[in-house]
User: Fold this.
Amino acid sequence: MSEVVLYDYWRSSASYRVRIALNLLGIDYRTVPVNLLEGAHRKPDYLALNPQGLVPTLVIDGGPLTQSLAIIEYLAELRPECGLLPSDSADRQHVRALAYAVAMDIHPICNMHVVSHVMTLTEKADAREEWMKHFIADGLGKLEAMIAESGGAFCFGDTPTMADLCLVPQVYNARRWGVDLTDFKRIVAIDARCAAMPAFQAAHPDRAAEASSPGRNAAG
Assistant:
């Protein structure tokens, strides 16, 4: 395999997911930081690589891949034995549903450009924090009920899947914004199990920040 390159922002939830996946699959990669606060994602050279101007972008097998879940599914197909997606089609659908509940329902409305626009519509000083707490707590409450239907140590079964790769970054953001996690006992327990695993530890934003440029206040 040729060199694998991850265009990454340390606090991006989407980038965090892909870092975990690469670590779980044992794929070595080089990181190129894309500082969202400095607008690096809007520069022509990056837009040529990723026309959406989003992170992450993964260059692997000679071409750029975009969109975190599409990247993770590609990696899962490269290493099906790692179990990021189950072999059974019904089980795969269930894992996707859990992952999408985070990546498509919670994350988009709590993203940096969305919340920044919200702040232009109100003069309320604490609007950003209220917005984040409301939508993260609401989404995690629904996810808690979905996960309760699944057995095992993780979101689905006894090994991490794509659902856990989405859950952990969202819990990181929940804690960052001061969301009360008391009622989300299953989510907290799964997050703790993941936190004990080296692949998740190495992907943590605090580790990723060490290789990034200054500026540590962007939304996830």
